[in-house]
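I have been asked to look over a protein record a colleague put together. This is what I was given:
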Amino acid sequence: MTTPVPRVDLLVRQLDMAWALFEYYQKDLDDQACLWEPSPDCWTVRPDGDGNWVADFQLTEPDPVPSTSIGWLTWHIGYWWTTTLTHCFGEGAPPRESIHWPGTTESTLTWLRSLKDSWRAELLPLTDADLDSKSRTTGLPWGENTELVHVASWLNFELTKNVAEIGLTQRAYQADRTDRTDQSDRTRRTSAPSV
C-alpha cells in the first residue's frame, strides 16, 4: 500500500512547476520587452507623477478584455500574490492602488521571486486541517468563505495562466522585432544605389 501524498506537497509541486516555466521565460526579459505594447488598447504599467509605476486597471473588466504588456502581467502576478499572502499570512492586504510595478525587469523579478519564496515557505508547514480551514481567507475580497486549499490552488493556476500569457506576449514581441529588422534590411537593400 502506498502512502498518500499530502495535499500541501501537491500544491508546492504545482507552484514549483509553474515557477520553472516562468524562469524559462525570464532569461529573455528586459525592460523593452516588458513595456512593449502588443496593441493600441493594451493595458500596461506607466510612471505616474510621483515616480511610481501604476498599472492600467478597471474594477469592471471591459469587454473585450484588452491585451496586456508583460509589465502589466508581472504587476498582476505581484498584485494578487501580495494581496493573498498578506491577507492569509500577514497583517491584511494593502489596497490595490498601493501595489506598484517596481520599474525595471530586474527589480520586478526580484520582487516576484521574494513573493514566491514567501508563499512557498508559508505553505510548507500547513496541515490538511490548515488547508481545510476558512479562517485565513475570512475577509479576502475574492475568496471569502473559501477553504485555504482552494485559494492556494487558484494561486497556482493564476500563476500558470499569467506565465503562459507572458510567454505568448514575449514571442509576439520577438516576432515584431524580427519583422522590423527584416523590413529595415529590405528597405536598405531596395534604396541602395545600383552600381
Notes: Residues 148-191 form the longest helix (44 residues).
